[in-house]
Amino acid sequence: MTESRNNLILASIILVLMTVSARSVNNMVTTTVPLLGKYVLSLPDSIVGLLSTVMFAFTFISTSFLNPRLNAQFRRKIFIASNMIIAISLILFAYSTVLTIWIISAVAGLIFGFIMPNLITAASLAKDKRSAERLLSLYSTSLSLSLIIGPALESYLLTMFNYRQIFLWFLPLAILGTIVSFNIKFPEVKREESGVTAIKNKGLIASILSITTYNVPFAAFTTFLAILAKERFDLSNFVAYSVFLPFYILSFLTRLSMTIRPFTNLRMPLLISILITIVGLLGILYAPSYELFLVVIALLGIPHGSIFPMSTIMISRATRIEERNAVNSYFLAYNNILFLLVPAIVGFAAIFIGLTLAITLLVIPVMISTVLFFKMFWNDKIILS
Prior knowledge:
Elements: H1 5-39, H2 45-66, H3 72-94, H4 100-123, H5 129-157, H6 163-169, H7 171-181, H8 196-199, H9 202-233, H10 237-241, H11 244-260, H12 267-286, H13 290-318, H14 321-353, H15 355-360, H16 363-377, H17 381-384
GO molecular function: transmembrane transporter activity
Protein name: MFS transporter
Keywords: Membrane, Transmembrane, Transmembrane helix
């Protein structure tokens, strides 16, 4: 028996509002704090990079060590308080100094690590599998929508306001998230599991291998894509940044289609997504014009849209409610590690072989992860359910 229509609609509305609020604010903070540090507080590039590292490092601490160990009842209180603290932190960022920006960034990074894993878990708590997988796809769609709404809103606001004021303009979104957070579902269990049991769960192993096939190149894209476009084709700053637009639009449309018509068998959709990734990485190397480069980047939006929700669906299929929070936390912690390491590795390699080839060579870890994934799970019900 499927979830009642009214309950599913209400859960969907709550999930979309909470996800758009949390991810839009999260993306704004992580991208604007470096700009605030460099252009308002006059920090050198090396220190600005360290500022971002501090934020991601504290997110890693909460997602990997703290959130998995909290029981559901206490975690709900932390989740609500975290949304309140994020709203307060936006005000503090707007009035930050060279000293206080470090403290606020560390606290914000820590707090974001309590919000995002619990949203994935909440999306998977529907009473039947079909509804849960539809909500997980809707959650992923909302993430993509946030990455369109947030940057578009900030780009418009920056025509009229400075970097300090941007934080205050995102305050209504953070307040909305605080209000909605009281209605987010948490597991109704007496005791949850974490540690070795969750780490060995095949859902976590499968999701890590599958997400590696895309988030390794995507971690590089977030840092270097606009730079690559500008250097390869001699573009203005605005035109170079616009390369993200078709990428995120295709990602959003892919996730929207998966919400409307969820995949039951993940084998072929995942295989096709990985093949598009491999072709896209090679296309970046050989694209002779900016127009074809845009086409390649747009195509890469399809696996960006599909692989993340399929990875979360694998977790939902392979976990019990008692271990799902821990597995989701470790999954996001792994992604956090990728976003810490990959840009640094690509940047270092670019010194010797150039940025284009450094990004294209990411096809190697993609193919290794693909072989390992399908060797382990080709006939497993985790993708054939």
